[in-house]
Amino acid sequence: MGTVAELEAVIGLEIHVQLATKTKMFCGCELSFGDEPNVHTCPVCLAHPGVLPVVNEQAVRFALQIAAALECEVAPRSIFHRKNYFYPDSPKAYQISQYDIPIAGAGRLGDIRIHRAHLEEDAAKMIHVGESGRIHGSGASLVDFNRGGTPLVEIVTEPDLRSAAEAASWARLLRETVRQLGVSDVNMEEGSLRVDGNISVRPVGSDALGTKTELKNMNSFRFLERGIEAELARQRGLIGAGGRVEQETLHFHPEDGSLHPLRSKEEAHDYRYFPEPDLVAIAPTEAMLREARESLPELPRAAPATGGRGGAAGRRSADRRVLRGDVEAGGGCRGAHRRQLGHRRAGRCAAPGRW
Amino acid sequence: MTELLALTALEAHRAMVAGELDAGEYADAWRRAAAGDELNAYLWRDEDSGPSPIAVERPSVAPIAVKDIFCTEGVPTTAGSRILEGYRPPYTATAVRKLIEAGAPILGKTNMDEFAMGSSNENSAYGPVLNPWDRERVPGGSSGGSAAAVAGGLAPWAIGTDTGGSIRQPAALCGIVGLKPTYGAISRYGMIAFASSLDQCGPFTRDVSDAALMLAILQGQDPCDSTSVGLPKPPSLPDRENLSGLRFGVPEDLASQVFDSGVRDVFEATLKKIESLGGEVDTVSLPHAEHGISAYYVIAPAEASSNLARYDGVRYGMRAPSSGDVIEMYEQTRAQGFGAEVKRRIMLGTYALSSGYYEAYYGQAQKVRTKIAADFKSAFDQVDFVVTPTSPSVAFKLGEKTADPLSMYLNDFFTVPMSLAGVPAISIPAGLAQPNDGGPELPVGFQIAAPAFAEQKLLSAAYALEQGIGFDARPPGAPGVSPSSAPYTARDQKRTGSGGGDGG
């Protein structure tokens, strides 16, 4: 093993983007931020017995816009799976997420290759009462289901980033790109943009990948850069001292820049993925794909050295009000839901498989 | 009053529409009948027609008994489980809403095997349902309460759900008509999920015409259920007089799976009846159907293990008192709230989906399912219908099979393949047979399966066969028979399916 200085950083990012649709991913509840807890709920997002999810058509359209901006291949028929786990932030005890056939496959933004991008739903928000701030050791835990079921696109890069500064700068480019599309608020502090890092080091010149750690809870670009720096220093130190990197998930504490492993038990999940039988495949039509491509505004360019996007001739400029004004779909059901649940507004049901 | 109760739902509907029958009086007569439930068929009954989220303003359709698996706003809904004791849903299932909108008052919610897991109704947390033909015997399951209510004169008709036979088998064991429509014909929204890719709502009725009427009310695409498509055309009332030009396929090697000789006799006699009505009886090959039970008992528990994970004590239903952390609360709640069979299937399903076992179990079972669907497709290239006995035996005694899950599972041998293939199938009463262990004669069901979405054709053939069989036996104490009601006109045959060409 070489000296510390000869170890290069290998970084990939996983970015969760909350979509700015009017309604949740699988029901007609309005999205919200900062409202009083548990006012944007219905039998579907509270997982009452007998309810069924319906895909939010607008979330699919937004995902297709992201796919177009990242030059991703779009799957002709993508499907949802169930990711099973018990935790109070997941009322069904499974998250509906795309697994082996995501809506968007390989793409790129600047020099960085995109591995995939997929649709899923956000979990509810938990507040742990007590000093630890975690579920273990807290006196009580409160659940706010307002956020539960918010549409997310998770974008996963290839491990193409080579420094903390490059990772932060590319993440800014991604945020600006998504912001221009008008499909998300992309606010890291409010959690509408969340960036996790997959981090490893390897000897310069090697093609092999070292053992990676996953770094979470970096809620600003500054913290993202600092967190990755800290983790790279830790890994280089470990290897330099003849030790080995353990595969684990680390939590970044911005107050003092420290890194703490999440308890390994929390990570020891077998999610028992299987295809979601309550939903049909998403099969975008040619018209939808064309619409997604044509809706791309003038997007920010990556630094000249990385190439960046081509010309934007014919592209409409991003007017978020207009784009969001177009939003008409939503999960949930017009008639029954509205009558029975007292929704002020309920979205139109989408039937993606039959578009 | 007995005359009122003797009307079929179709006859009652016609009389109400013509102004010859007072809808309120008719519904009240049925409420009184339901109040006399000695079979433990109902878990909840509508005591009056007062204001309620599920009340019907102007009844014009016969009142209905609803399996307790359908959510009804403000009305207790338990799915036969302790874990949902006291739960009152905030919304109503699409199927029930359609019935209410059509003008059908809800008579009550019927008993069932817990979360629809069972073939005898003995897995209900609220006690077993008794078979109206012999109260020492089971009514079948899982929709045992709905079947017993209709057969025992406690409801003119009912809805249930069928995942692997839960409508057809209890209909057979109680001597009534039960239809499992094509997967996707009726919305599953508000129907508490057991196995999502198999669950389907359907009617329990006295005759095939009533089944067609109810299917016409229930079917249709529902924006709340992405897997619903409805039928290509709303079904009309069947009126076919014979079976000429229709081919009926009997699966090869069928006889070895029939436990009761009496069931075999009635099945053979019904095949002769088909021929006497002009139908053709052939043999078909369903080479993978024998693996149906094995595949079913992987797929259904796998889906159930996920569907039932939401019953965690956090948001509704039962919560066990627990001094520990959230995980302990989950464990205590689920340990106390679920019955033995539900726990067994959750364990089976969890195992089948586990990392390292998924391909060997769930993946393999899905391959078998695809093969069985292909078997039916090629069978339907040769014949119009596939026919079998609905159940290998007549109603068995309470407690007889509870100690042996596998022998209980084999009750579904003839019904599970159609569920896996997603095709429609109906059970009609074909005659009476003595059980192998002696005792009074009990009803035998005849199952007819058709290609997906061919409900109209299926109902027409079932109607013609029903007319030809002329089954008119009723359990002791059930409401009298209206002299004018066509399928129930008095015939002097007890064992109607046993003759050759008589009575046609």
Give your account of this protein's structure.
The complex is a heterodimer of chains A (355) and B (504). By secondary structure, chain A is α+β, with helices and mostly antiparallel strands. In chain A, helix 1 (57-69) crosses helix 5 and helix 2 (164-181) packs antiparallel against helix 3 (221-240). Chain A is globular and about 55 Å long. Chain A has helices at 57-69, 164-181, 221-240, 264-267, 286-294, 320-325, 334-341, and strands spanning 7-18, 81-84, 94-97, 107-109, 112-121, 125-129, 140-144, 151-157, 193-203, 213-218, 249-253, 258-261, 274-275. Chain A has one domain. Chain B has 15 helices and eleven strands. Chain B has helices at residues 2-6, 9-17, 23-35, 94-102, 144-151, 168-174, 208-218, 261-276, 292-307, 326-337, 340-352, 359-382, 405-409, 416-421, 455-469, and strands at residues 42-45, 64-67, 106-110, 158-162, 177-180, 200-205, 247-251, 280-284, 385-389, 425-433, 442-449. In chain B, helix 4 links the parallel strand 2 (64-67) and strand 3. Chain B starts with a helix and ends in a 35-residue tail after the last helix. The interface between A and B is large, with 44 and 50 residues.
In a nutshell, what does this entry contain?
Chain A is an alpha+beta fold. Chain A has helices spanning 57-69, 164-181, 221-240, 264-267, 286-294, 320-325, 334-341; strands at residues 7-18, 81-84, 94-97, 107-109, 112-121, 125-129, 140-144, 151-157, 193-203, 213-218, 249-253, 258-261, 274-275.
Number of domains of chain A: 1
User: How much is the average pLDDT of chain A?
Assistant: 84
Distance between the termini of chain A: 56 Å
**Low-confidence segments of chain B:** 480-504
Helix content of chain B: 25-40%
Please indicate the percent range of residues of chain A in DSSP E strands (runs of 2 or more): 15-25%
Structural class of chain A: alpha+beta
Q: What name is given to the CATH topology of chain B?
A: Amidase signature (AS) enzymes
Individual helix count of chain A? 7
CATH class descriptor of chain B: Alpha Beta
**Helix/strand-derived class of chain B?**
alpha/beta
Low-confidence stretches of chain A: 304-355
Radius of gyration of chain B: 21 Å
In CATH, the architecture of chain B is: Alpha-Beta Complex
Roughly how many Å apart are the termini of chain B? 31 Å
What's the gyration radius of chain A in Å?
21 Å
The topology string of helices and strands of chain A comes to EHEEEEEEEHEEHEEHEHHH
Order of strands, widest sheet of chain B = 1-3-2-4-6-5-10-11-9-7-8
Largest interface: A-B, 44 and 50 residues
Beta-strand residue fraction of chain B: 5-15%
